[in-house]
Amino acid sequence: MSQARTKTDRERHPENYFDSPVGHIRDRIVILEGSDIPKEGVFIGLNGYAFLAKPGMEIDLPRPVRKMLDTRITTMTFYDENGKEHTKDIKRVPYTIIKEGVNIPEPEAATPQGG
User: Which of 41, 59, 81, 96 could pair with 54 in a Cys bridge, judged by C-beta atoms 3.0 to 4.6 Å apart?
Assistant: First the structure.
């Protein structure tokens, strides 16, 4: 009798690993314009793969790259009218999702039979 091989986490959840942009679900986003975002755009890189995203223009990114953007935060410090210090974590590269899964084929619409 042979023993069943246990799948690795990489085999069970390939979406959590990024070795190449090939084969990943892509999400369409727009980088928001801001004082920290150059008009020429920002390079977004993950594991040696770089993408140039220009503010205000749509870009399709592999989902792991898009989710990595959520981890890139900076802390903003501000003071209220009483001089009390407050901090807030904000995204370094703010974006809006236009459409998730742009490379997933749409299911074909059912066509009525008969006639």
Answer: 41
Write out the E strands in the chain. 26-31, 42-46, 49-53, 58-62, 73-79, 85-91, 95-99
* Residue 27, token pair as written in the block: 């999400």
Number of Cβ atoms within 10 Å of the Cβ of 32 = 13
Through-space distance between the first and last CA atoms of the chain, rounded to whole angstroms: 57
Within 10 angstroms of residue 79's Cβ, the number of other Cβ atoms is 9
- How far does Cα 26 stand from its chain's mean position? 8
What are the pLDDT digits (tens) for 52-101? Answer: 999 999 999 999 999 999 999 999 999 999 999 999 999 999 999 999 99
| Helix and strand totals (H; E) in the chain | 2, 7
* Interatomic CA distance for residues 13 and 108, integer angstroms: 27
